[in-house]
From TrEMBL:
Top-rank lineage group of the source organism: Bacteria
SMART domains from the UniProt entry: HTH_MARR
Organism of origin: Nonomuraea marmarensis
InterPro entries, sorted: HTH_MarR-typ, MarR/SlyA-like, WH-like_DNA-bd_sf, WH_DNA-bd_sf
A Pfam family of this chain: MarR_2
Domain HTH marR-type: start-end pairs: 19-151
Name by which UniProt lists this protein: MarR family winged helix-turn-helix transcriptional regulator
Length: 154
């Protein structure tokens, strides 16, 4: 009697594991979305972290790298290189913080505003593609549930 090789066996354990362990399912889903986001960012030529920094600066105005790091949950050492790259590209500038001369405020430039607008234009299609297996209602529900898990709005 012939045996099935490992390459022909259809995986059946992971769906069971995901149903039993929400933490595992959420981690795998998060990793898949992160990979999709990184691939999209590579196509756009603007890293995910860079995009988030430009988006926050547009929304809240100039702020310190520390504030950007804390709010966007990007490690401080990574934030330095993100801001360095954005500054080299002319999308942000660092200026002495007028309220605290020991720190610098990161400010969005006109070039950064234009670059952000270009990047933002492709986000709806990216999200539709990434979350195509969910209905609009399910996406809204997922957003609400993730907000609860992340304590958004508390």
């Amino acid at each position: 009697m012939p045996t099935k090789t490992a390459s022909r066996v259809r995986p059946t354990y992971f769906p069971q594991l995901a149903a039993e362990r929400l933490d595992i399912a959420l981690c795998r889903a998060s990793a898949a979305v992160a990979r999709a986001g990184d691939a999209h960012a590579a196509e756009e030529g603007l890293g995910v972290g860079q995009h988030l920094v430009l988006q926050m600066l547009q929304a809240v105005g100039p702020c310190s790298q520390q504030t950007l790091s804390e709010e966007l949950r990007i490690d401080r050492s990574v934030m330095v290189s993100v801001c360095d790259d954005l500054e080299r590209a002319g999308h942000v500038r660092r200026e002495r913080n007028p309220h605290d001369r020991r720190s610098y405020a990161v400010t969005l430039t006109d070039s950064g505003r234009r670059r952000l607008a270009e990047a933002q234009a492709s986000i709806p299609a990216f999200l539709d593609d990434t979350f195509q297996s969910l209905t609009a209602g399910e996406r809204a529900q997922l957003t609400t549930l993730l907000g609860k898990l992340l304590h958004v709005g508390d």
